[in-house]
Amino acid sequence: MKFNEKLIMLRKKAGLSQEELGYKLNVTRQTVSKWELGQTTPEMDKLIEISKLFNVTVDDLINESSSNTTIKQDKKSNGFNKKYIKYIIIGIIILLLIAIPIIVKIYDAKTKLNDAKNELTENVSDVLDESKSMSKDIFGSTQNFIGQVNDGFNKSNVSDVFNEINGFNKNTSTASFNNELNLYSGTALGLNVKSALEKIIEINQTENNQIIVKYNDEKTRDIAELRNIKNKIDITKLYDVSYDYDSEGNITTAIITEL
Questions:
Q1: Superfamily of domain 3-65
Q2: What Å distances lie between residue 221 and 103, 114, 209, CA to CA?
């Protein structure tokens, strides 16, 4: 491509008229026209101004073998840049369309999670308060119960036990007792019942006259089974303890009933 053809292409690509190009180069429109008609060629200083104006080299302007390729490549490069920017904008829009619903869902999930957390905190606080109140009530009730049991046991049951022992002593000689189990007869606290059972276990291990224990549906003199019954006794509950005696006044059977 010759210089004049290149100049026409570059001027039109830039959207300039011959008069506007002449104004930028400080020449007349007629001079530009002569350049484009191939009648004259610009001086070197004008060639340099033209190369700077259209962003090409002087060699591209005057060299017929290379200028066409360079100019075409420049044109393609500008078109590629425009398409590239267009694709970037479209990609950003698509990403925003995808991301916005996700962000909204995440925000809603976070809000629901915070609400659930607050509700759980309130419920736990209520449960703790209720537990503290119940603990106080249970503790108070337990103290009252133990106090009542102790009062009843200390004031009446012990007296009854000793009265029974005294009455028994009047009719039976001391030598006829095979143990002190009579101390635990009548109404007794579970703690005392455990002591009586421990004594019975000791007697059955060391003496020939073994004692049978009746508890609920169980009836045994076996040591292992007696220990099992002892483990079932609740120290806070009340039990009725009675005995059967042989003709010599020895205890043969202990009957334990939960009240």
A1: lambda repressor-like DNA-binding domains (1.10.260.40)
A2: 77, 65, 11
Write down the domain spans for the chain.
3-65, 172-258
Distance from C-alpha of 235 to C-alpha of 77, rounded to nearest angstrom = 98
Give the Cα separation of 66 and 19 in Å (integer): 28
Q: Please give the chain's pLDDT, 259 residues, in tens.
A: 889 999 999 999 999 999 999 999 999 999 999 999 999 999 999 999 999 999 999 998 888 765 454 555 555 555 556 667 888 999 899 999 999 989 988 988 888 888 888 888 777 777 677 766 776 676 666 666 556 555 554 444 544 544 554 544 444 443 344 567 887 889 989 999 999 999 999 999 887 878 999 998 899 999 999 999 999 999 999 999 999 998 888 899 999 999 9
Q: What is the pTM of this model?
A: 0.34
| Residue among 60, 38, 42 nearest 51 (CA) | 60
State how far the Cα of 236 lies from the Cα of 21, in Å rounded to an integer: 115
